[in-house]
Amino acid sequence: MLIRLPSGYHFRRRVPSHIRDVIGKKELWLSLGTSKRETAKPYACAVYAQTERLFRSVSHIKTELNENENFINDELPEDTRELFHLLIEDYHHQISLLKQQYEHQKLRHSIEALKSLEQLEKTQNVAERGVQLLKKTFSKLQKQEPTDKSLNALRNQINEMQAFLKPPQTKPSPLFSKASETFLETKTNVKQSVIDGYRATFKRFLEVCGNKPLRDYTGEDAGLFKSLMEQLPETYGKQRNDTRTIQEFVAVANKKNLPRVSGKSVKNHFTRLSGLFKYFLLRDLVDKNIFTGGWQFDTKAKTKRVRWSDNNLNTIAGQPWQFGTVSNKTANMIVGIASYTGMRLEEICRLRPQDIKEIQGIPCIIVQDHPALKNQPWTEWSAKTEAGSRVVPICKALQKAGLLDLAQRATNQGRHYIFHDLQFSGKDKKRSAHFQRDFSKLKTHLGIGKSVVFHSFRHNVSTKLRNIHEHGEGGLRESWIDDFLGHEGNNKSVGNTVYFDDVDVINLLKVAESVQYPDFWNVEYLFLKKE
């Protein structure tokens, strides 16, 4: 009902479906003209009361007519049509009156606030003159040798009035360099790559805006930082040992007219800085968070990710696997699992023999959390979301390609992971890093563009499944597909969110077997051995 947007609070209410033909809208929106919740809330309640009155009146008349929607739209008697029109006109009139009422109220509050300010200034002026007079009186009394009691009383009165006139003291604000280190010390349960990201952002901010107490930074500093970050070249951050400053990067990008970083990257920098300022704002060490508010970023992806076409699949099928870090058999199986299940790359690369189980006689992959091995904390892993923990039946194509045999061999040999030739690497200690790099090199060498990546196999599976009609023979329910892919799903009905806990594995198998590819897509012989 009450929506907070950068422009302020808005009232929003859905029009009941059975009267939309009369109202002519699906939703009613109204700007409340304020960014203060305490003002917006009573205003929205008043608007709600008027919309409820309108909805009830229209519903009552439709019930009395007892006719279908076509009659309402096409054959409504003139007098009834006019009645509906009058009800809607009256509603708009009442909303207009409310708007005027709250505009007057805002003006009255502003006038009262101005009067209060004027009174405060008058009080301060009187108090200052009073202090001067009291000091003169104190000096005269000292010369007349008064009692200590009268002098103390006068001294206390002077101190109280001076305390009233003294502006409130603010806590000293720490330097940005010190504040950033204090903030990072609170990030105890995050990956090292996240900490490195924060440090990179803080470093660039110091280069642009200098090292000052946090309170001294203004929106102008934030704007200057945003402007320079948006001019960085697209290749920024790709070379770890590049020591150039942000100004040097921008100068080169301008001189060579290079493509620039995405708005999403700039927004990520603002998000990190906003987290820092929020931390100290809660502790009264800054006056405002200069990185929140109406800042706008172009977050549209520069490269739209698309699924693998049959032509692209045919291009990589049968190619030699030229990379020694991962065997061609492992590459076959990783790509095969992704193309038939839509599993994420790291989910596949971390598969363990105990993740392959039979449920109701059906071999399945169990995507589940992994506890850390002894003295190897990087082996701990969790599914991406709650929906990411799921059961994925293994289709006949993957069984034929030897996935079950591969899992059994890993069990027999006492290996912890199914794909033994993958290693943990990179800042985030991922098992997928080397394969992802090699696969990207392969597809680029074959002329497959940037819009098609490994994750596009997930798009393939989703597209193939959602093109199968829900009803009739072979139909797949949306909730089955979401459960199979580990999506949270769009269907938020009570039946799905409260009473529908788990999809039966038989239905999930039906989903798994519905993913079909052309005959040339043979997982067992997808890539040839290195020539």
CATH fold call of the largest domain: hpI Integrase, Chain A
H and E string: EEHEHHHHHHHHHHHHEEEHHHHHHH
Strand order of the largest sheet: 1-2-3
Strand content: 5-15%
Q: What is the β-strand count?
A: 6
The general outline is: extended
Please give the domain count: 3
The level of helicity is 40-55%
What is the CATH architecture assignment of the largest domain?
A: Orthogonal Bundle
Q: Give the uncertain stretches in residue-range form.
A: 68-72, 491-501
Task: Report the CATH C-level class of the largest domain.
Answer: Mainly Alpha
Query: What distance lies between the first and last C-alpha atoms, to the nearest angstrom?
Result: 65 Å
- Briefly note the structural class of the backbone: mainly alpha
Whole-number mean pLDDT: 82
Q: What is the makeup of the main sheet?
A: 3 strands, antiparallel
Q: If you compute it from the alpha carbons, what radius of gyration comes out, rounded to the nearest whole angstrom? A: 34 Å
Count of helical stretches: 20
Keywords: DNA integration, DNA recombination, DNA-binding
InterPro entries: CB, DNA_brk_join_enz, DUF6538, Integrase-like_cat_sf, Integrase_catalytic, Integrase_recombinase_N, Tyrosine_recombinase_XerCD
GO molecular function, one term: DNA binding
Protein name: Integrase
